[in-house]
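STRUCTURE:
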């Protein structure tokens, strides 16, 4: 009977050790897999956010360049009234909720020696 008890004891010890090794290896494998997955997900989220920010900045840059070119052409054409009207119209739209631009208070322009005078246009 002593051999049977000893054999059963070693079987239980072996089972516990094998189960412990299995749990430990499973933890190591899963932690590496989860870490890689989280790293990949974080990289893709950061990349997507970066692309959104760059896209937003490019759209504002295009908007401002178009606005500046229009103002420049009005100055070249020597038409102060159209310039004031355009400035006020664009500013009113930029301030409105329809524009979707939340961080603007209005547009301001200071034109020195244009139309043989100094002009300050403000709309807010």
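SEQUENCE:
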């Amino acid at each position: 009977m002593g051999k049977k008890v000893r054999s059963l004891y070693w079987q239980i010890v072996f089972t516990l050790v094998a189960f412990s090794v299995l749990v430990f290896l499973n933890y190591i494998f899963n932690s590496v897999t989860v870490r890689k997955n989280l790293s990949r997900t974080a990289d893709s989220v950061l990349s997507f956010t970066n692309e959104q920010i760059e896209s937003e900045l490019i759209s504002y840059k295009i908007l401002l360049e178009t606005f500046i070119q229009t103002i420049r052409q009005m100055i070249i054409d020597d038409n102060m009234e159209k310039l004031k009207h355009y400035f006020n119209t664009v500013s009113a739209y930029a301030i409105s909720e329809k524009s979707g631009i939340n961080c603007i208070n209005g547009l301001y322009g200071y034109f020195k020696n244009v139309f043989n005078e100094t002009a300050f246009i403000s709309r807010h």
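REMARK: The mean pLDDT is 83.
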